[in-house]
Specification:
By secondary structure, this protein is mainly alpha-helical. The chain contains five helices and three strands; from the N terminus they run H-H-E-H-H-E-E-H.
Length: 121
Amino acid sequence: MTSIDPREVDGLLPLPPATFHILLALAEGERHGYAIIQEVAARTNGAVRLSAGTLYRSIQRMLEQGLIEESRERPDPDEDDERRRYYFLTPFGAAVARAETARLTQLVRLARASGFTTGKA
């Protein structure tokens, strides 16, 4: 197993919101593009709606960065459309998502300490 360089992870932070939402959508397993769009909308109660253009530009960049990969495996042909491309989270992508989560958690702690929000971290 290849170790993940924390400097490479930190070099991608902060993540664009669309990228972070896509990583979250892929955390539970591989999905095709439209399923990612649906998952993001569902997770955010419709507050975030990725357009196809934003999704596929983000996916292209994420593939280049090694955050995700395209799956070679396909569902049963009776349950699939051959035009679909399925994507999954890489170990590096998971490490970047964890680092972004830690960064955002720290920001919320600072905001709460400054009185900008209530509740506990």
